[in-house]
Write a structure and sequence with these properties.
3 strands; alpha/beta; globular
């Protein structure tokens, strides 16, 4: 494993227990990379996750190569602007869609 790319940097910099939106549907590689980096705390989801979810209690990190729908981008922007984090980096406010 290279450990030199932007995804590696993003995972290393992600807050603890972050939700990591991967750029594709198959999440095998990012899960393997996260384990290799010691970031098993990351919850890795496919790129269509924001289109099908209205709530999260985690910080949202989007992979640099992800191309997301306008709906997904809007949801992420709303989550990031309206959320309140507790000491563990988890959202403590439920966000209405």
């Amino acid at each position: 494993m290279r450990d030199k790319g932007e995804t590696t940097r993003q995972m290393q910099a992600a807050p603890e227990n972050a939700l990591y939106i991967w750029c594709a549907g198959n999440t095998y590689y990012p899960r393997h990379l996260a384990r290799h980096l010691g970031r098993e705390d990351l919850k890795i989801v496919p790129k269509w996750w924001p289109d099908h979810s209205r709530y999260t209690r985690r910080v949202v990190v989007v992979d640099h190569a992800a191309v997301l729908s306008h709906k997904a981008l809007g949801l992420i922007a709303e989550l990031n602007s309206r959320s309140i984090y507790n000491n563990e980096g988890e959202r403590s406010e439920k966000i209405d869609g």
